[in-house]
Amino acid sequence: MFRFVVAFLAVSAAWAKPSRVLEDELTLELQTAFEKYDPMTIDKVSGIHITTDHSDLNLDANRVIVSDFSKIEVTNFVPAIPGVSSKVHMSIKIPMIDIRTEDYTMQGTHSEGVVDGSGSAYMTFHGVTASLKFDTDSVTFVPLSMCVSRGSTVVILYNESIEGNFDGLDDLNSHISVEMVSIVAGFVDYVNANTNAIEDAVNNALCKK
Q1: Which domains does the chain show, CATH number per domain?
Q2: Which pLDDT tens digit goes with each residue over 12-37?
Q3: pTM over the 0.70 mark
């Protein structure tokens, strides 16, 4: 019982700050940390699977450049309760994320036709919002520090619109905005299967133990 009371008082003290103080602190910390890596080059991305009622596609790419993610803003933060729960929920938004490569391959089927494309490609996600849920190894409010447990992250992603182009795939390119939900679902599946990079990025920015 005493343990619960101490934890409750600690969280109450943190939330006694003016509205959005934690969100603003987290936003500043993440922006400062991410600016060093924006744009970021990923050597290899493989196994992105995109399926719709008329498409079944597999996408791989080398030297993928991701930019504009450092404009992240934390819109809501529900902290863990020390000694009671390790669960954290954080909502974020990013105005735009741009993804480009000079070396993609895509194979599969689209509208009953065979897809076999390669070359350069880009996709730009506008109005990105995401919900991240994870466990923490430790959390403190003064100073603000949060350490994410390895393998605990779950990401739910939404966005307002997509534009993009894949060399040699004109028919597919004309359907990118229409197939937005399925394309985002494919990327989310890939992200949730490879959350180590997200956890490392958050820990590099926020874990101060």
Answers
A1: 2-206 (3.15.10)
A2: 444 444 446 689 999 999 999 999 99
A3: yes
